[in-house]
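Quarterly update from the structural biology core.
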Amino acid sequence: MPRTKLVDKSGAPLAEMGDERARIWNDRLNSANELYDKWSKKYDTEQLEEYYYGKQWDNSSNAHNEYNPYVNNKFFIAIDVKLPSLLFQNPQFVVKPKPTKSEYDEEGSALRAKVRQDMLNFFFSSNITDWGMELDLALLNAQFSYGLIEVLHTSDWIENPEADKPLTKSDVEMGISHDEDVIIKQPKKIPVKERLVLKYIPAKRFRVSTLSHPNLNKCAWWAYWEYFDVRDLENNENYDTSEWNLVTSRSDEFNDGVALQDELDEQVQKGDLVKVWKIFDNRAKTIEYLPENHDNVIRTRKMRRNTIIPLKFRHRLDTFYPLPVTYNWKSPQDELNDIREAARVHRRRYVRKYVIATNSFEEEELNKLQFGGDGAMAETKLSDARAAISPMPNADLGAQHFEGIQTSTNDFDNVAGISAQQRGESTGASATETSIVDKRSTIRESRDRIIVANWLCEIAKVMLLEIKERTTLDFWVKVLIDEANDDDQLAEISEQWTLITKEEITGDEDFDVNVSVTSLSPVAQQADKSDYIEFLSVLQQFPIVSMSPHLIRETANKLGYRNENVIRVFQKLAQAAMFEKLAGAENIMEQAMQGGGGTGAGQLGQKTIAQAQPNTQEQITNQLQNPSTRVQ
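Predicted structure, tokenized:
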């Protein structure tokens, strides 16, 4: 089966390089594995994940007993608190066109941007796609190392019943022309179903080139591995398996220490599964598939763009592999466990012992106390029973032990960036101190939330580019139709299904994708609600702000409110109310003037207009200096 014909920069076919390319890639992958292992061991990435699961003690020495040391799992609590504030529900995207040429169709670009926006919001909110779990897994993985999402466009193909049929006379009569020596044939296969997939890639399976960069797109290459069923590869015409020789059994080193399920491990040992690397060559712009330690690349295809989007919260300089966000949590977590385990051991070692004064009991009376039941009594020779027998006190843990619990807890909260309020706990601090701590935690949360929002925007843009270039079929999406206009501000927003065609999403213009941060989490929504209420209060207190577009936007920016559509509506309503008030004042003046010579009507109209006008600065100053004076 011939392999896809691609050439390198020198013009030599890549497929003809055969064994040499496979050898080069195997050497590169071995070096990349060593680099990854050094980073993973240095920052304890696997142990950080185990800490999240509650495995925080080394039980190798207790392998033959059932004793489990005390664990106060702050890791789980902190992550369980932080993740909902980063991505709790479906994001809402906004797509805006961006011109790239001198000739720019503004109206057509805006319509195509609206279609793309509707597509994104439908895909992320629809139950048809199972993207929520993939995003959650990548977000959780980023707490211990980094998260990865791959955007894939897949199609189901069937045999074309019209294949190998030349154009008929009716086709020519309909305006389809061709040379006499060329016969135009139908494709052998046609797509019947297309879909977009978001695929979670475990970080432990991903490698980058040894000379890496914090930006993945600037790395020379990157790759990840996964297991394939051997029969699936052999039956797939896209993979060239004619020259590979797979062994029927494998050594324990084949898994590279990766823990597998029993059934999966058995399939690997028997040779039913094969480990295949998917390699993205950023220089040659190709994607190659190479079985582990094999001497032939089984598939090569072009790479249009990078479709793997990483999520990293804390970068390291000059390398792709990041600083795990939970790495600095480990030390205070260990200290807290040690303190609580010490108290537990101290409590379990306590055995009741007593001190008896010499010749204070007869032997018979002492046996009553030692072997008697509950409530046994004995006669002592001493008048003071407490001097005759007293319990031996246990060693005191000391006040430092209990202070250490609070200190370790505070240390963990400071490193993790969470507060007692976020954990649902009350503190004895004052309201001012609590507010300061809460604001500082909110700032750190906002930074991480913006990182997640930018990650989602990058995923969404790659999705739209893949749809634009690879989609051939029409598809239906559910969109929101805003029927409101300038005259009808109370029109309802309806929901309906719309057919999206390829012509509606293809265009030469570029576009920007943004996501509303407030749509990601109820925490952000609560903050946005406070900004909105504060914005309303300022508009009511200073209505003149609504009269100017510049003033109302400057006020909104100062208060942190960013909804441009709502700001425009407020401005229109304020202007309409002001015009109505002015019209009412003019009617009052006109009625007063029509009162003829009667001075009463004229004075009444002037007084009404004067009351509708605000006091001057001089009147306000006089009123403040002389409270008994009433300003009319």
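The CA atoms of residues 414 and 441 lie 9 Å apart.
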